[in-house]
User: Which sequence fits this backbone?
């Protein structure tokens, strides 16, 4: 007597993973390592991916060194060495980045020594966590898409570990996992929407600071110019009402008052001003979605008249994100480490009356620029007033041979003299710096203001990029701070168009900052719009978005137990639906019937309808006589008839229905594209 | 305690809870009432790592982290339903047994039937000390074979079997118990080198005559107390090779014999049944008709598999309290 025998699990030799399991795990590992290669130090990537590759190589062709490296001793050495190297590379260990780098190496080391099913379980969990950590670095649509194959690989690895001896093949496995994921998706979506979100972190590691991007709190020649080479988005803005004109798009950032002869820095002051909230004429209301810059300031159109409030459904609940300093900077307590959304109001004017008189240091000079001082003294003597003097300076820039360029000539020991009287080419920071030096030389309090100038409308929102970074100046005239933009005197199109328009040909302007509407730029703008929506709807999804959903559904804010109850009820419903699915579908129609119906529908498209009195055979013959591709139609019909009426065993009938399906598809597509 | 409920309703809570029902009647379809499901250890580990992922997502406000976490939760939940469905609705149509001599193995062949549209994969059937697994295709049947070892004569019960599965992802284990009284009979282990069959001993008192010097000598075997002196190979003994007994071609093929406890010439019951077991086999081999008589069972003269089985079953259970 013979009965179907299957290898029981215990028969598997446990000390050597079989090939299927090994490959499934390797695929999972590779896919979860892939997104990290973008940000990890190169040596970490090489070690991590290298170990996985080595393990596969050794599996195929055994060699001594490979075995030694992959032995528990070798792997312990790599894990410990990796920890030491990571510590050395980052300078600390208990932080997000070094921990991710170490996890990356650890997962590979674990893979090298996986032997028992329990090991592979641990590996699966580690790989899942590694997959999650990629979101520390990017939560773009691409990051989401790249996760999906990894999740499939995770499911496949689970299925293979469960039964590697006689599991269905990988294709069937993946189909099954796909089905499970699709069935689980409604539940996942429900949890995503209703799971309570906390407004702040539970804890933060001491060294979680990340590379600062964008403007910094100091300015030296070249610092903004280098920023201008970046296409990166600084922030996006949605305006209530029409967006401001081009020459009003001054986004105020760090104000730099101290000068050491080379470098401008901010003057630290703990003073904060109270903000009057009276509505002003020419006020602009808008919402900013700021990318994390890991700095403490927020941006607002010059000049801000409100404090930035985190955006909520109703104004009452917004948190104040930052305070305003006397020089009208918006400063927050903590660095901006995640995408921040705030509403802001500004009054679009180029001068304002300050709450306090300017500090004496605002006329201090440093460095050795004798020619500049002499020039300032002479020009001031020729002018009637400070205002006339400032305008005379602008005229000087405008009427002399000054050039606006991203590639200025290097300056010597007396940079302002060199710039004003010999090189005469520079970027906005050169002009702003020289202007403030000349103003101070005449005893007028003045300072450099950095920020962004410009912004490009994309649909209903504005994109402000790092390439829009700019420096301008403010001078204290007649008890008011007045904005002067000397760059505008040299290159007016920098102010009323954008940087690219102001620069000559051959300048290294980044693509997205260029004027015109090239197809690549249009595609990129389209992608940015998608990313903007993605950012708004998915990445920024928080407790306030949840409240908005309840509001739309006409529900009050749900308490925790109400949410729990809702989830339980919907989960029960989901169970019933999923369990009910195959039964209804299965009994409704079997495979042969489905194929037959597809066939008759296809012929209907070709213009042949089945008469109710016709037998299938008659119908097929008539159709094949009538149609130009009759032979294919006929043989397909014959196959369908034999599938239905011949007694075929399971494998035969499976093969036959697969070939029928292929043939149907090819007929369908040939019909669609009219190829016969 | 009110016994009214329990006595009137056999599928009461208590019985369901503790599975006290002694016997499930076949064919038996596995319904949801008797299915249990819990996460496996891998499932628990998976759940734990989901929790860690959730905490990380909360702390760093990773929206995609939440999404990944919940996607995997969905996978985990959907696999629960699939694991459950892999076992629910399978019918157990019958259990066949094969009997065996002590020391050999008995088989319990359990037939499963699947009347649904779903293939059932890796359905494992476990008894206390053996297990087997099979796939049951949609609208198909399959069987598993539980092989149990035996040591002594008597009956070997299948006992409670557990039908279990971890398909598809091994994150959940679903199981149910089936109680069936089916048992295989373990025949007494036949004596290794039994003396030849007793001759036609018609005398009821069981006095057996050893007609051993009929036919040709087939070989020698070691002396066992109780062998006739006349059959000892004295020549070999004289050469100092020890005591051997001449065995003969059993030429009473087609003859008749009577087997009973007393005809064995032994007193120890286990030795008696062991020798009888051997004799029954050799009688069947040589097609000797035999009548069989032990306390509680009497078989008339006969031969053939059925006859043998009845005799062996009687021997297997002789003297054992059932």
Assistant:
């Amino acid at each position: 007597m013979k009965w179907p025998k299957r290898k029981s699990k215990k028969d598997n030799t446990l000390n050597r993973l079989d090939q299927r399991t090994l490959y499934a795990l390797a695929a999972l590992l590779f896919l979860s390592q892939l997104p990290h290669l973008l940000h990890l130090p190169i040596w970490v990537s090489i070690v991590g991916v290298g170990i996985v590759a080595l393990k596969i190589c050794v599996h195929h062709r055994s060699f001594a060194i490979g075995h030694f490296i992959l032995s528990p001793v070798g792997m312990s050495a790599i894990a410990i060495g990796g920890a030491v190297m990571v510590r050395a590379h980052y300078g600390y260990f208990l932080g997000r980045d070094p921990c991710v780098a170490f996890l990356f190496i650890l997962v590979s080391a674990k893979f090298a020594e996986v032997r028992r099913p329990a090991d592979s379980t641990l590996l699966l969990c580690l790989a899942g966590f590694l997959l999650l950590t990629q979101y520390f670095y990017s939560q773009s649509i691409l990051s989401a898409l790249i996760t999906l194959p990894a999740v499939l690989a995770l499911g496949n690895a689970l299925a293979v570990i469960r039964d590697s001896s006689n599991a269905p093949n990988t294709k069937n496995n993946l189909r099954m996992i796909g089905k499970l994921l699709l069935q689980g998706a409604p539940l996942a979506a429900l949890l995503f929407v209703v799971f309570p979100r906390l407004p702040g972190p539970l804890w933060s590691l001491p060294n979680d600071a990340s590379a600062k991007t964008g403007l910094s709190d100091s300015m030296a020649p070249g610092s903004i110019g280098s920023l201008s080479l970046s296409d990166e988005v600084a922030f996006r803005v949605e305006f209530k009402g029409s967006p401001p004109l081009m020459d009003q798009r001054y986004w105020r950032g760090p104000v730099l008052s101290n000068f050491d002869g080379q470098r401008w820095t901010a003057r630290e002051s703990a003073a904060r001003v109270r903000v009057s909230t009276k509505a002003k004429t020419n006020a602009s209301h808008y919402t900013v979605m700021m990318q994390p810059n890991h700095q403490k300031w927020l941006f607002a159109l010059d000049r801000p008249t409100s404090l930035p409030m985190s955006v909520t459904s109703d104004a009452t609940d917004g948190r104040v994100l930052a305070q305003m300093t006397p020089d009208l900077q918006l400063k927050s307590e903590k660095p901006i480490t995640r995408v921040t959304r705030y509403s802001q109001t500004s009054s679009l004017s180029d001068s304002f009356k300050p709450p306090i008189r300017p500090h004496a240091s605002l006329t201090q000079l440093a460095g050795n620029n004798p020619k500049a001082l002499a020039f300032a003294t002479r020009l001031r003597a020729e002018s009637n007033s400070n205002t006339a003097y400032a305008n005379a300076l602008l005229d000087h820039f405008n009427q002399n041979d000054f050039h606006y360029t991203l590639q200025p000539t290097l300056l010597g020991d007396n940079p302002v003299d060199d710039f004003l009287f010999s090189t005469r080419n520079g970027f906005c920071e050169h002009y702003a710096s020289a202007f403030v030096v000349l103003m101070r030389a005449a005893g007028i309090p003045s300072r450099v203001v950095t920020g962004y100038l410009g912004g490009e409308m994309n649909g209903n929102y504005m994109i402000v990029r790092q390439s829009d970074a700019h420096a301008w100046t403010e001078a204290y005239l007649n008890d008011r701070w007045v904005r002067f933009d000397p760059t505008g005197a040299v290159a007016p199109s920098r102010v009323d168009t954008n940087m690219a328009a102001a620069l000559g040909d051959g300048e290294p302007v980044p693509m997205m900052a260029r004027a015109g509407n090239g197809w690549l730029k249009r595609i990129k703008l389209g992608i940015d719009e998608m990313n903007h929506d993605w950012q708004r709807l998915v990445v920024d999804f928080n407790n306030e978005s949840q409240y908005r959903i309840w509001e739309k559904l006409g529900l009050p804010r749900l308490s925790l137990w109400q949410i729990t109850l809702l989830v339980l009820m919907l989960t029960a419903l989901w169970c019933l639906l999923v369990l009910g699915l195959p039964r209804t579908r299965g009994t409704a129609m079997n495979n042969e019937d489905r194929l037959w119906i597809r066939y008759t529908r296809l012929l209907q498209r070709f213009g042949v309808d089945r008469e109710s009195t016709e037998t299938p055979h008659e119908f097929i013959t008539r159709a094949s006589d009538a149609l130009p591709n009759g032979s294919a139609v006929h043989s397909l019909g014959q196959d369908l008839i034999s599938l239905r009426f011949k007694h075929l065993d399971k494998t035969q009938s499976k093969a036959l229905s697969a070939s029928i399906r292929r043939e149907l598809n090819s007929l369908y597509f040939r019909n669609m594209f009219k190829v016969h | 305690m009110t016994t009214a409920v329990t006595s009137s309703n056999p599928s009461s809570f208590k019985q369901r809870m503790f599975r006290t029902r002694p016997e499930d009647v076949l064919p038996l379809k596995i319904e949801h009432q008797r299915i249990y499901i819990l996460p496996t250890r891998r499932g628990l580990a998976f759940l734990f790592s989901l929790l860690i992922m959730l905490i990380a997502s909360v702390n760093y406000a990773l929206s995609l982290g939440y999404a990944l976490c919940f996607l995997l939760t969905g996978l985990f939940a959907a696999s629960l339903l699939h694991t459950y469905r892999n076992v629910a609705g399978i019918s157990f149509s019958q259990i066949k047994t094969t009997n065996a001599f002590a020391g050999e193995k008995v088989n319990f062949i359990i037939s499963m039937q699947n009347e649904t549209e779903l293939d059932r994969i890796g359905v494992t059937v476990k008894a206390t000390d053996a297990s087997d697994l099979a796939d049951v295709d949609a609208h198909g049947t399959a069987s598993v074979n539980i092989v149990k070892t035996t040591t002594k004569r008597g009956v070997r019960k299948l006992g409670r079997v557990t039908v279990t599965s971890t398909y598809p992802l091994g994150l959940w284990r679903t199981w149910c118990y089936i109680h069936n009284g089916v048992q295989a009979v373990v025949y007494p282990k036949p004596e290794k080198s039994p003396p030849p069959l007793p001759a036609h001993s018609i005398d009821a008192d069981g006095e057996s005559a050893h007609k051993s010097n009929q036919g040709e000598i087939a070989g020698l075997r070691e002396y066992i107390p109780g062998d006739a002196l006349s059959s000892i190979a004295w020549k070999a003994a004289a050469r100092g090779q020890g005591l051997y007994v001449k065995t003969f071609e059993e030429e009473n093929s087609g003859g008749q014999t009577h087997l009973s406890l007393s005809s064995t010439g032994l007193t120890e019951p286990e030795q008696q049944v062991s020798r009888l077991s051997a004799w029954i086999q050799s009688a069947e081999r040589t097609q000797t008709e035999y009548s069989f008589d032990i306390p509680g069972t009497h078989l008339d003269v006969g031969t053939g598999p059925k006859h043998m089985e009845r005799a062996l079953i009687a021997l297997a259970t002789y003297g054992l309290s059932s």
